[in-house]
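Dear colleague,

Thank you for sharing your sequence with our group. We've completed the structure prediction you requested, and as agreed, I am returning the results in plain text so they can be pasted directly into your records. Please verify that the sequence below matches your submission; if there's any discrepancy, let me know and we will rerun it promptly.
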Amino acid sequence: MSKIKVTDYIADYLHEKGVRQVFELSGGMITHLLDSLCTRNQIQVVSVHHEQAAAFAADATGRMTGIPGVALATSGPGATNLLTGIGSCYFDSSPAVFITGQVNRDEQKGERAIRQLGFQETDIVSMAAPITKRSIRIKAPSEVPQALHDAFDEAVAGRPGPVLLDIPMDVQRALIEPEILREQNAQTGPGALDLKPLLRALAAAKRPMILAGGGVSAGRAIAAFRRSVDALGTPVVHSLMGTDLLPWSHPCRVGMIGTYGNRWANMALMKSDLLIVIGSRLDVRQTGSRTDSFAEGRTIFHIDCEPGEINNRVKNCEAILCEARPFLEQLTGEAVEPGNRYESWFGEIMELRQGWPDTGELPGAPGINPNDFIHQLSRHKNNAAAYVADVGQHQMWAAQSLELGEDQRFFTSGGMGSMGFGLPASIGAVLNGNGRPVVIIAGDGGFQCNIQELQTVLRLNLPLKIVVMNNQCHGMVRQFQESYFDSRYQSTYWGYSAPDFTGIAGAYGIEAATVKDPADVPSSVDWLWREPLKPQLLQVMIDTFSNSYPKVAFGRSIAEMEPFSKPVEMEST
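Please find the predicted C-alpha cells below.
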C-alpha cells in the first residue's frame, strides 16, 4: 500500500464518514489540512470569522445529521476559541470532532519548567479534557488513523458528545501507510428490559405524564418516541431541549415545563400521579429548587443512559438504565391500548391551558406581545427545516410558543446557555437542511456576540430568516436585577446599547426591515417569506421591560410562578 500524506488521509477519511462540511477559521497550524481539503475537493470548507462560530456550526450539524460535525482551528488562540462551543456540544450531547493544529513536536516545551516554547504553543488537550468525551494528543504520524477512527466512534457511542484531536504540524505533513484499524468492541443492546413495573404503574395511574428531554433527540429516537406516545396515549410535557419532540398539533402534546415553562404545563405536571422521564437530567431549570415538591405525590420512572443522572437531584426514582431508542421500541411493543381512560385527565389539562394562555402572561405590556409574535411567525406557511434560538428571553418565548410542524427541528444552547450560539448554529443547520430555509430567533444582546457571521451568510447566500427581537437590553439578566437588585440595571440596561440591526444587515448586503406596531406583524412576516431562499433580517422591537413570564418563583414548587407568586430566596442559576 502506497504512503499518503497525513492530512490527505484525514480529508479522505472525513469524506468516507459522510462529513459534508468542515467549519474553520484559517491559521498557520491547519494550512496542511486546508490544502488537503482543497485539493481533494470532496468536502465543503466553510470559513467563518471566529472559531467559536465554527464550533457552534459543528454542534448544529451533529444534531441535524447524527454524523459528527467537524470544526478545525489553529494552535493557541484558535484552539482556545473553540472551547465554549466544545462545552456546548458536551453538555447538550451533540456529536462532534474537533481537530486542532499544534506546533511542531520539536517546538513543544514537554517537561521543561517554562510556560511556552513554540509560538502559540498551548496545551489544548488538557484544557478540553473536562468538556470532551475524549481529548487526544497525537505524538506520531502512525497514531493518526486509529485516533481518527476512534474519535468518530466515540463521538456517537452511548451519550453523544465531542472528541478533540490535537495534531502537530510536522505530523500533519508526514507520510503514512494507512494501517488496518482496530474496530471498537461492538455496541450491544441492553437486552430485554423488565418493563412490567412501569406497565403496571401505567395501568393504575389516573393522571400519567411523560416528561421528555433532549436525550431523546440526542439518541436519534424522535420517530421511536412518537410511535411510543401514540401507543400509550399519555400526555407529554417537554424540557427546553425537547421542544421539537412532538409537533405542535399532536393531541398528546401539553407544553414546556420548567423555570420558564408554560404555566399550564407546570400545573399539570404537579397534578400528575405518575411521571415517566425520558432523556432529561431533571436539573434545577426543570424541577425548580424544591425537588421534594417535584417528587411528592407521584411515582417517577427515570430512563437514562447514564447511571449518574438517575437519582441525582430527584431521589427515589425507579431507575431504568437504557438508551432512549431501545427503551422506546420495547415500550411500544408492550404497550396496552389505553382507550379513553385518560379523557378526563386531558380535559383537566385543557382547562388549565385555556385558563392560562401563553399570550396572556404580559397583560397591558406596550407594543408587540412576544409570545403572540412567535405564534404568528411559526404559523406562517413556510418550509423551514429548523428554528434556532439564541440565549435569552427570546429563547424562552420561542420555546413557549413555537408551533413546530411534523418535520421541523428546534436547536438552542441548553446546558452551556451561551449567547452567540444562534447565528453560527443556524449556518450549520441550514447547510444540512436539504435546501430548506432555517429561522434564527435571537435577541439584540446575543446576536452581537457573533454578528460577524452575517458575512458568512451573505457569502454563501444561505436561506436564513433572521429574526432579532430587540428590547435594547440584556433582558433576562435585567429581569433578574428587577427581582433581586431593586431594579439597578447595571450593564444590562444602564451601560448597554444595541444598534439598528437593519443598518448592520444593510452594511453586509442583507435585506432587512423593522416592525414596531402589532398591526404590522402579519405583513412583516409575509415580507420575511416573500423570497424563501433569500437571506433576510427582520428586527422586531419589543418593550424593554417586557419580562419572560411565567417564571418559577425560586424556592417554591414549579406550579408557583411569577408574577403571581414571589421568590422566597435568590436563585443561583
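Summary note from our side: Residues 51-65 form the longest helix (15 residues).

Kind regards,
the structure core
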